[in-house]
Amino acid sequence: MTQGERGPTIVVSNRGPVTFSLGEDGERDHSRGAGGLVTALNAVVRRGEGVVWIASAQSDEDAAVAKEPAPYEVEDLRVVFVEHDAAAYDLMYNTLANPLLWFVQHGLYDLPRSPRLGDDTREAWESGYVPVNRNFARAVAETVGDSPAPQILLHDYQLYMTPLFVREELEEGVTGAFISLFVHIPWPEPDLWGVLPSYIRKGILESLLSADVVAFHTQGYARNFMQTAARVLGAETDSENGTVRYGGRETWVRAYPISIDPAEFEELAGSEAVLEQEEFVKGLPGKLLLRVDRTDLSKNVVRGFEAYGRMLERHPQMKGEVTFLAQLQPSRGDIPEYAAYVEAVGRTAEEVNEEHGTDDWTPIQLFMMDNFPRSVAAYKNYDALLVNAVRDGMNLVAKEAAVVNEKDGVLVLSEYAGAHEELGEHALTVNPYDLDEQADALHRALTMPDEERKERGDGLRETVMQNTIEDWVETQLKDIEAYRQRNR
Q: What EC number is given for this enzyme (predicted)?
C-alpha cells in the first residue's frame, strides 16, 4: 500500500513522539517520547511513506512549533502539534479522561460512594473534552487538505469524539477517508459503562461508530464494546463477524493484541547501562520476585505486597530466601486518588518489611523512580514476575520480560490483564482480588521444578515471538485494505 494509491496516513494521539525544549544555548532541542503507545505508533510510522503524526503540544516549545508551518520535520518524523486552550485541556485530561473514563473503564470506582457526577461533569465534557477533540479534528482536516482517500488512525480514550468530528470536517471535498480508533485500555461490561451520564455514554458510542474500525487489544474487550453498543444505542451487532450497524453505517470491531520488538529488548539486555544495573540486581539476597509498574490504582500494587506478606506468613522458611524488587514509576500524582495510593504503596511495603525483615534481609526493595535499565536487568534475572492488575488493556511488561529472561522465570498473571488471552496458558493465573490465591501462586512460582519452569518460559517466549509489534501493524494494515476493498 503506497501513499499514491491511498492518500496520506495520519496518526493521531494525545501524546506525541517527541517533546521540544530550548537548550542552554537557546537552540531548539527535542527528546523522544517514552511509553508503550509511542513505541507502538513508531512502528506504524516506520511502515508508511510520509506519515504525519498529530499530537497535543505538551511543552512551551511544542506550542511554538505548533505555530510554525506544518508538518514539522525532525529526524525521521513529520509532526503536527495541536495547541489547546490550557483550561480546556485541563478539564479534558484531569477531570474527564483522567480519572472519569479511566476509572470507569478499569472498574476502579467504589460505586456505593463514587463517582459523584453533576454539573461539573457536564462542564468538563462541554468545555474540555469536546473542544479538545474538535481541535484534533480540525488539525486532521487541515493536514489532509484535499487529498483523496486518507487513512486516519486515531488512538485512545482522550480522542473518543474525534472520529465524529473528523467526519464532519471532511464531509465536503474529501472522498474515501478511512477512520479507525484504537482503544488501548479495557472496555468494560455494559453495566459499568452505564456509570457515565447518558450524554457521555451515548455521545462516545455514536462517535466511535462513525469510524470504520474500532480496535481493542483483546477479543473480550471487543465483545464488551459490541454488547455496550447494543444496550445503549440499540445498535445491530454481529459478534461472529465482528460488525456493528448503526445510523446506516457498518463498523468493524477488531482485536489486535499489541506487542513489542523482541530484537530491541535483546539489544537492550546487552547494553552497558543494563549490565551495570545487573550488579545491583544480582546482589539481592535469595531468589528474585519482580514487579515493574506505574503506581496506577489499576496495577494493584498494594494487594501484591499484601499477598507476598501472606506468603511469608504461610511459608516462613521462605524468609531470607527471596527478595521482592518493585520498580515503580510515579503516575498522575496531581490526582488525589493517585497521591493517596502512592502513600498506601509505601506504607504497605514498610509494614511487610517491619513484620518479616531481619538485620540482613529486607523483604521488599521498593524504588519509586523510572530506571529502565534496572528494569531490564531485573527482567533478565527474575525467578517470578508478578502482574496482578485489576484490569489492563494489555500489560507489555509481561511480554518484555519474557523475551529477555535468562532464568526460566515464572509469570504470575492476573486473569483480568489483557495479556492473559495470549499468555495465560503459560502463566500461573490469579484472581487479583484474592490474596491467598496470589500468595499460593507466588510460592508455587518460586519453588516450581526446573522442568516445568522451562516449559512455561519457552511457551511465553514463543508466544511473544509469534506476534511482534511488526505483526501487530501488519494485521491492521491488511484489515484496512480489506475494509476498503469491501466498501469501495
A: 2.4.1.15
